[in-house]
Amino acid sequence: MKLWRDEFSIEAAHERYVARRQFGKFLVLTSFGMFVGNLWILARSYFRRAETFPRTLVAHASDIPKGGVRLFRYPGDQDPCILFHTQSDRYVAYSQKCTHLSCAVIPATDGRRIECPCHHGFFSIEDGRVLQGPPPRPLPRIVLDQRGDELWATGVDLGTESSAPEELKS
Amino acid sequence: MSGPPPVSRGLTALDGAISLIAILLVVQMWLLTATLEAFLGGHHEVAVPAAILSGLLFAASFGLYRFILVIDRAGGGGRPGGQGTS
To answer: DSSP H helical segments within chain B, as ranges?
Structure first.
């Protein structure tokens, strides 16, 4: 009975109080949601630091001609990646998900860039940095370790601006 | 000048408080998107100060909501027989 009287005013002049109070409650609950979102990011950051990556054989270098590519998945089955044998005779690998809206990136026709065909974003094939278009961040780089003819993936570099690519000559 | 505020003054105070909450909420939304962007970019060090600041913004919003409740109570709050007059 008390709740009914609190939420449904009888006098018309007081009805505006109820509407504003409800709206204020909605805003504060939304604010709480934003706070929970920040806490979720904090928790993810904490656990991400302790994340370890498997060591996985992704390709044999001799199987990929210069200018060729090889698709693989790393570190999990839901993480598509793309390996390039560049014109400068290096092996580099990146996540295949565009950092804009996760479309699959492909080699551009000029052989020097990586293209996202959805919104025409372009990345450098040498270090994954954004060259053009809407992507906000570089492509996450797969850390490669070459042992003889074997190319092993050993980690994922999220592509912060300060990180320099690791060079692997064939 | 003492005594409960009339409904119009109470509504003005409520509008001011709600406007402040809305402004704080916009700042909090920006903070969340900026933190998410930094997190996805591998900058994990911003998560702690962002969470603290977001908590402070939420606390401020909650404090303003408590103020709304106080004004609401003093102004009658829509209850029949409340103290407010129009």
So the answer is: 7-40, 47-74
Chain A: give the shortest CA distance to residue B67, in Å: 10
ipTM reported for the complex, 2 dp: 0.80
A86-101: per-residue pLDDT in tens?
888 899 999 999 999 9
Whether A60 and A122 map to the same domain: the answer is: yes
Same domain, A37 and A62: no
User: Measured between beta carbons, which residues in chain B are less than 8 angstroms from residue A13?
Assistant: 7, 84, 86
Mean pLDDT lowest for which of A92-96, A134-138, B47-51?
A: A134-138
Terminal Cα distance for chain B, rounded? 15
Residues 46-85 of chain B with CB under 8 A from chain A are 47-48, 50-51, 54-55, 57-58, 61-62, 64-65, 68-69, 72, 75-80, 82, 84
In this structure, is residue A10 part of a structural domain? Answer: yes
Alpha helices by DSSP H, A97-163:
none
Higher pLDDT, A50 or A118: A118
Strands A121-124 and A150-157: unpaired
